[in-house]
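Box 3.1 A note on notation
Throughout this textbook, protein chains are presented in two layers. The first layer is the amino acid sequence; the second is a token string describing backbone geometry. Keep the layers aligned when reading.
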Amino acid sequence: GKNILTGVYKEIEENGLDEALEAIYETSGNRDAQLESILNEPTSIMLDNQIVYNPLGQSGELLEIQVFNAYCAPSFIDALEDIARDLKLGLGGVFPLSYLLFKKLKSKLGANYDATLLSIHADFTDISVIFGGNLVKNKTLPLGSTSLEKDLDFWMDGLELALLEFSGVKTFANTVYVCGSGLERTDFWEML
């Protein structure tokens, strides 16, 4: 029952942490990086290919759980807590922008939509893939509006390579939502 499900979520979180640490190692060579979980939330639960909101008390052959995990360096959380304390505020939480965008679109478009989200910032671009109203994959491209301003073709090539690296995603939705603070500094729409 509940203990088994808790164990499944814990294993998913640990696997996600291992993947995040491996990604840091691949990009920086740092094996000593530390991360802590800031979000571990199910985005889809299916029992025998049927969406369920709570699998407890239900029976079936195949349980599939998709979880959005996010991790952050403890020093970043500490810095945010120090700032909040100096301002006499409480830090209610830290959430990835891509996840908040996904949740907002789901509330506006309904539970069953397909989309690709591009959130362009100065130094990076977050790419999120949504199928059937579920956030399937998220990836960060280390090229943002600064790269885009210098060489649109280079940024587009980087975007194409990042999309090809999405494991388990064969096609992308025709609907693409583009946002981000980096767009304020560019003529992105004219460049495209």
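The radius of gyration is 19 Å. The chain has a mean pLDDT of 87.
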